[in-house]
Amino acid sequence: xxxxxxxxxxVMAEKCEKVLEEAVPVAGLADxxxxxxxxxxEPLTPACIAALAKPVLATNRPVWEGxxxxxxxxxxxxxxxxxxxxxAGYIDIELATAPELRARLLSTARRFGAKVxxxxxxxxxxxxxxQLSGVxxxxxxxxxxxxxxxxxxxxxxxxxxxxxxxxxxxAAAFPLCAFAxxxxxxxxxxxxxxxxxxxxxxxxxxxxxxxxxxxIIHDLHRLLTLLDTSP
Length: 231
Prior knowledge:
nine-stranded parallel β-sheet
C-alpha cells in the first residue's frame, strides 16, 4: 500500500530564534518544516536549519503571489539560493518566476542535493480542468522535482476538481501537492494525503496559519489517527 503524503508545518516568524521556539515543539509531528523567508527579518542561517532537525523547506513568497517579500526578484532569488547553500532540503519557487531565475535555483539545488518545488497559487478561484492540466504540464516541463498547485474552492465541485488533478500527476509519475484554500477546500488538505498527494501544509495554530483553511497540525494528526484506526 502506498504510504500517505508528507506533512509540512509552515512557520512565519521575524527571527530565527522565534522560528525555533515555535517549530521545535511540533517537529515530531511534521515531516518537513517550511520557513517563510518573506517573514524573516534576518537570514535563514545554517545553525537555524540544523537545529530544526527535520528537512527545511525555504519559501520566499513575493507580494504578487500572496506573500510578504516586496524587494527585487534578484534579491528574492539570492535569499533562496543562500538558503540552499545553508542546508535547506527543499525550496519553493513560483511558476510565474522568470525562467532564468528558476533555472538558477534548479542548478544550485542539484549541486547541494536539495529538491525544488515549483508552485502556483490562485487566491480567487479553481480553474477549469483543462487549465489545471496546462499548469501541471508547465511544471513537469520546468524540470521541477515536485509541483504544488493550490487554488481557492468556492464549492465542492472545485475541491473535487483540484484533487482529481493528482490522478493526472500520478500517471506522469510527477510528485504533486494539490489542494484548495478556503472553507470549502479545507477537506482537500486532509484528503490529499490519502489520494496520492505528495505533501500537505499545516499551521502551528489558527492565528499562525499562512494560508486560508490550513488545518492546525495537532488537529490534522488527530484526524489521521481516526482514519488509521477505523475498521
